[in-house]
Amino acid sequence: xxxxxxxxxxxxxxxxxxxxxxxxxxxxxxxxxxxxxxxxxxxxxxxxxxxxxxxxxxxxxxxxxxxxxxxxxxxxxxxxxxxxxxxxxxxxxxxxxxxxxxxxxxxx
Length: 108
Fold this sequence. Notes:
Order of helices and strands: HEHEHEHEH
Oligomer: single chain
Structural class: alpha/beta
Number of strands: 4
Distance between the termini: 20 Å
Helix content: 40-55%
């Protein structure tokens, strides 16, 4: 998360980012959120089709717990394709970053 945040800050200084996130159940979501998310970012939470997936609702709750001031956390869906469509719509001209689990990337 630190390396990704540094890269985003270099590539897109002073710009908000739209994140499409999904996690497996054993991940440090709170640490990930504290490191990666900034005020103004938009977060769309989904879940992967994997036996160890974290339900999207639980992931959203854990992200909100460490980043409550971010009003951009506003989309939640269990369907990755719908999540992508929401990212495109909500992201406008902001960069869209798909991360959280390599399993999410595999499903694209």
